[in-house]
Amino acid sequence: MIAKNKCRIQIVTCILATVFLIYGLWRGEGPVVLNKAINICLECIGLG
Amino acid sequence: MINMTKSIIKRKLIQLAAFGFTNSHITNFTKGSLYKGPWKQFCSPGLNCYSCPAAGLACPIGSLQAVSGSSEFQTSFYIWGFLLAVGVLLGRFVCGFLCPFGLFQELLYKIPFPKVKLWKGFRYIKYFILIFFVILLPVLVVNYMGIGKPAFCQYICPAGTLEGGIPLLSTHPELRKTIGSLFTLKMTILVLTILGCLSIYRFFCKTLCPLGAIYGLLNRISIYHLTVNTNECTNCKKCSHICKMDVNPLENPNSAECIRCGECAVVCPKHAINLGFKSSNKKNVDSLVLVETVQKAGLEKIVNKNIHSS
């Protein structure tokens, strides 16, 4: 992969990641993650 | 030899520190409770079940499924943004240095047990698991309220069984009464994973881990990367022989399987391999510029020839 192209892809991916992060938090995904993480996940521990 | 030992010890210390940081609430094991603080809305970069009593952060794969399986959202921009950010910065450095389950597998491999080599085709299973169990099933298979289950966590993840299932079931007798066939399935997968890790280095990482699949795809463009100075390289193949992830750094320096452990760089007698954020190898950079210049000159020559002939 030519160095210039790789640099461009890195920059675009960083920008995309930032946009996704901010948009996801803005639309309220943080509380969904928190609610799942603070309660015992019965599926995760094998109890369905 | 001394350099290799130092490198291994340094990496183990970083792995232990990451394990400790990700699972800092050790006292919860005896209480059988989970940390319920605000830090749990943030993800750890490695695979670590959020139902582990000691976990202080959320699991990225579990969170991805939780959001996309919720009735409000079809996918999680927050978690994908997090994974892209970590992946483009570090790639599978996370697997090699920051993942608690990765450390667990490496310690298992040290136990004397017959060692075998993994058939390379099995490495594609993790991509199937990522697409089918992590991305599609939580969205497509929903109940009457529109809520999907975290299919990877429910049917496969051995980290959840080990870190969450066993500790919580041992401290909650009321939960033990609800043990059924699903728990049997998950325990079977855990036992098979442990047996696999005893004989194959990082068996779960190579074959089943969807998080490794995501970071591996980003290895090609990650800012933390591996470069090989082909001018210095003598093709002695010491790097590929020492690589426990079965990568040939000379052929494929940014392979999706490389966990950036750095052993190839340490063993190289000519110091031709570099790992880091910068392309610290000036000769490699200059050779890339030379290739680009020659390509441009070649294109100019073709264009000029066409102009003159017309």
Descriptive account of the structure:
The complex is a heterodimer of chains A (48) and B (310). By secondary structure, chain A is mostly helical. Chain A is built from two helices and no strands. Chain A has helices at 3-26, 29-38. Chain A starts with a helix and ends in a 10-residue tail after the last helix. In chain A, 33% of the residues are buried. In chain B, helix 7 (125-140) packs across helix 13. Chain B is built from 16 helices and two strands. Chain B has a two-stranded antiparallel ribbon with strand order 1-2. Chain B starts with a helix and ends with a helix. The chains are: A mainly alpha (48), B mainly alpha (310). Chains A and B meet through helix 1 and helix 2 of A and helix 3, helix 4, helix 9, helix 11 and helix 16 of B.
Overall shape of chain A: elongated
Give the strand order, joined by hyphens, for the main sheet of chain B.
1-2
What portion of residues of chain A belong to β-strands? Answer: under 5%
Percent range of helical residues of chain A: over 70%
- What would you report as the Rg of chain A, rounded to the nearest angstrom? 18 Å
Largest sheet of chain B: 2 strands, antiparallel
**Integer average pLDDT of chain A:** 92
H and E string of chain A: HH
From the N-terminal CA to the C-terminal CA of chain A, the straight-line distance is: 45 Å
Helix/strand order of chain B: HHHHHHHHHHHHHEHHEH
Number of strands of chain B: 2
Poorly predicted parts of chain A: none
CA radius of gyration of chain B is: 23 Å
Average pLDDT confidence of chain B is 90
Termini separation of chain B: 65 Å
Q: What overall geometry of chain B do the principal axes of the alpha carbons give?
A: globular
Number of DSSP helical runs of chain A:
2
Biggest interface in this structure? A-B, 39 and 60 residues
